[in-house]
Amino acid sequence: MRSFARILGYGKRTDHVAQLLGVRALEARGKAPAGLVRFGLGPDQLAFAYALQDELMAKLITPSNRLVGWKIGFSTIEGRKPLGISEPAYGPLFSGGNVNGPVKTSSFANLLVEQEVVLVLRKDIDRSMSAAELEDAIGAVHLGFELPSKRFKGAPGAPDGPTAGDMIADCLAAHSFKLGPELPKTAATSTTLDLTITRDGAPLAVGSTGKLDDGQGGQGALQALRWLVEKLVARRARRGEGDTPVLRSGDIVYTGAVPGPLLFQHNGQSQASFVTQTSPSAKATLDVIVG
Questions:
Q1: 242 CB neighbour count, 10 Å cutoff
Q2: What is the pLDDT of residue 11?
Q3: What is the DSSP string of 14-71?
Q4: CA 198, CA 275: separation in Å to the nearest integer?
Q5: Where are the alpha helices (DSSP H) in the chain?
Q6: Torsion-angle region of residue 197: left (phi > 0), alpha (psi -120 to 50) or beta?
Q7: Are the C-beta atoms of 287 and 102 separated by less than 8 Å?
Q8: pTM of the prediction?
Q9: pLDDT (tens digit per residue) in 107-150
């Protein structure tokens, strides 16, 4: 017979997943919710948070909403500091989130805009690999936008805001993404590549791939990928999935936002245009419609 503590834990898990599914159902109907109250999963509960993420993924994956890759979050020291964690985190990306045209704010609880370096794999990966092996497994490097949905009230790490565990349970706020132009493959190993983001021509922020780190001193998009592969191999073992690939040819990996997520602010205009670029020849555009 299960202990009361285990029954209670199962009840919390069921309730948390139900809440996360409920917010997504409202988003799909274009009815942005006011926001979830934090679960309060502390740094010592990350294993439980990833178990919640697995359960949520199992309910979100369908033949028309396939797993197509992963995102890395909390990928800078500055981003992790208020959350009290020492390494990044990961969450899934689904085919239903792939957008080519404008996005509407009403389909998000709160729209976040992130500029990132994106890796596209050309080989299956079924084990931990050296940096050189992983570099060979990359088929292309792109500039891109990742568009999370801020579903919890409050700022991450704030007393009234979500913890790292809360956000892990919510698949790191995964919602939509847009793949931009291809970059030189050297962008995967660069720690000096600057990304600039503007809104309607006005500068918002500048970030550098040198800010991406794996929590152990490794910097840049390639080291972020190496960290992710190690974590996915451990996830596979935890789930008893044998030696199946943890990443497949064609999968995408969003390596982390630099300088960090930008909360979309309504300014009275009916639409906005975001541009992220590394140079005049590498530029990605995102149009946002308010409403």
A1: 8
A2: 55
A3: HHHHHHHHHHHHHHHTT---S-BPP----GGGHHHHHHHHHHHHHHH-BTTB-EEEEE
A4: 5
A5: 4-28, 46-60, 77-80, 131-137, 164-169, 221-238
A6: beta
A7: yes
A8: 0.94
A9: 999 999 999 999 999 999 999 999 999 999 999 999 999 999 99
Which tokens sit at 161? 């805001």
d(CA 131, CA 182): 21
Confirm if 256 and 72 have CB atoms less than 8 A apart: yes
Give me the phi and psi of 290, to 5 degrees please.
-80, 125
Find where tokens 């497994």 sit: 137
pLDDT higher than 60, residue 2: no
The pLDDT assigned to 205 comes to: 96
Nearest Cα neighbor of 81 from 38, 35, 37, 43 is 43
**Residue 269: half-sphere exposure toward Cβ, Cα within 13 Å:** 11
% pLDDT > 90, the chain: 92
Q: Which tokens go with 239? A: 């789930």
CA nearest to 207, candidates 98, 72, 79: 79
Cα gap 87→125, rounded to integer Å: 22
Are 247 and 229 a contacting pair, CB within 8 Å?
Answer: yes
Residue 1: count of CB within 10 angstroms of its CB: 5
The tens digit of pLDDT for each residue in 181-209 reads: 999 999 999 999 999 999 999 999 999 99
Task: Report d(CA 260, CA 88) in Å as an integer.
Answer: 13
Burial class of residue 210, CB neighbours in 10 A (0-12, 13-18, 19+): middle
Q: 46-60 and 4-28 helices cross at what angle (nearest 10)? A: 50
Is the confidence at residue 34, as pLDDT, over 90? no
Q: Is the pLDDT of residue 7 over 70?
A: no
